[in-house]
Please model this.
Amino acid sequence: MNDSDSTPKSREQEDEILEQWCARVIRALDVEELDVDIKEVLALAGRAAHGVLRPAAPLTTFIVGYAAGRAATGAKSPNVAAANATETANRLCREVNDD
Model:
């Protein structure tokens, strides 16, 4: 799964690599109950990178993940918590673009 070579990848190849990587990280972190919407996470990262500043992408996705994890310890499922945290971050990205 090493993607360190500079060979151009098709969109399908990139999607497969990301799905495999996501599954590997999920297994390693023992969070198999989590259903990751890869496209939504990448879309949020893109909005943060382009709407705020490029380094805002990993920072935003990390904070969303942390917030979702904290919320999931309550009554919410991990997927509901992640969806709620993602929507909040998306709203903030839209607000930055409106300023």
User: Anything to note?
Assistant: Helices lie at 11-28, 38-51, 56-72, 78-98. The mean pLDDT is 87.
